[in-house]
Amino acid sequence: MFEHLVIFKFNSSMTKEHEQLLLGKLLAFKQTIPGIIDMSAGLNVTEETDNIHGYSLGLRVTFESQEALRQYGPHPAHQDFVKALDGLLDNVVVVDYPIANA
């Protein structure tokens, strides 16, 4: 299995309404993109305000394999989400790693 973590930092043109729209698009991935075992996404509500650094939306997706993760990128639902980010991002952080068997 592979874990895919993403955190988004939006610029000043982002509205709360558009942020909610993006969150909805992310949450729909599990029903539309094959190979997803589990996922969660949400708006940052941490009380560790010194560590926010402007990042307001997080995504975690567990894929059944690295190949499923590779197929996720070009999937139409993912590409639709990427297009919806156009002109809104200040930064994005992505971490992908294999999940070690415990």
Automatic annotation (TrEMBL):
- Organism encoding this protein: Paenibacillus solisilvae
Q: What is this protein called?
A: Dabb family protein
The record, for PROSITE patterns, names: S_R_A_B_BARREL (PS51502)
The record's note on quaternary structure and interaction partners says: Homodimer.
Enumerate the spans annotated as Stress-response A/B barrel domain. Answer: 2-97
Q: Where is the signal peptide?
A: none
Q: Name one Pfam family in it.
A: Dabb
